[in-house]
Amino acid sequence: MSERDRFLSLFDQIVEQTIAFAELVDDASYTAVPIDTPELFLGTRVDKITIGGLLRHLILAEAHWFEQVRQASPGAAIPFPGNAAALEEIPDGVPLLERYRRDYTNGRAQLRTLTEEDLAKEVSFAGRRYTVMGFLWTVLGHHSFHLGQIDLLMRQQGIEPPEYMEWPENRLIIG
């Protein structure tokens, strides 16, 4: 199994787990602002850290990054994702999760077209240099970071999320 295939098998599972988390969220909890205390300081943008906001961020960032790594010339700087308002018209809940599934399926198909040469290509993002494959692993870390935030927000709303790493796929070897 190639490194890209290992990445995709793990990323598939974390996306499915993120969707499983979000399927447990009621409409009011999508927009609930987190509990912010001195002991649990979430930063100055706390009002933007909602379950709906985090899901929209993951959808936009991942679609952007998967497209960018495919198109980038060797040595190119990958820009930050823009157009944060692009998904605001999509209602929370099922419509948003359907959009996530669609965009992830499209992004995954783009990643499948990458050759070993593409994956070894050097790019930069946020002032750091990566191979495309290294950047993809960083995208997985980014996703995990925000899934942890979603987990916290769900618990603050009294919603118990599924156990982490109890991946939906249990018949195949992951990674």
From TrEMBL:
Q: Pfam families, from UniProt? A: DinB_2
Gene3D superfamilies assigned: dinb family like domain
Transmembrane ranges, per UniProt, are: none
> What are the DinB-like domain coordinates in residue numbering?
12-150
SUPFAM superfamilies given in the database record: DinB/YfiT-like putative metalloenzymes (SSF109854)
**Domain of life, source organism:** Bacteria
Alphabetized InterPro entries for the sequence? DinB-like, DinB/YfiT-like
Instruction: Identify this protein by name.
Output: DinB family protein
* Higher taxonomy: Bacteria, Bacillati, Actinomycetota, Actinomycetes, Mycobacteriales
